[in-house]
Amino acid sequence: xxxxxxxxxxxxxxxYTKFFALQILEGAVKFRWKILPREQCxxxxxxxxxxxxxxxxxxxxxxxxxxxxxxxNICLVQILKQEWPHNWSTFVPEIVGSSKLNECLCENxxxxxxxxxxxxxxxxxxxxxxxxxxx
Length: 135
Known about the structure:
The protein is an all-alpha fold. It has helices at 5-11, 15-32, 38-55, 59-64, 66-83, 91-99, 103-134. The chain is globular.
């Protein structure tokens, strides 16, 4: 099902359908990413990045598509957790560079970094809890 996500995102008019497709993609990234061929991983990553940049480059789409963009950002964070820093070492310079292009893109990039930091913090808190349980 995840292999058809790009077509669903491109051609569906229903926000619910797009959201559902992104949930499928998020699950694939979380649980199947390591077994996907490298070309597919790169294709998914590039596609999600391009859609996010396209939608978050203007104030109109950034506000009207807020929930959809947020779900795209969550999928990107899941990809980052799999890819960075080994397979996507240029992520930080790329996000900094794209933030200089316009204010809306910068605002969304801050949201991506916020989601990433929250996810990392939650993960490290879980690790701390695990170590305390072991003690």
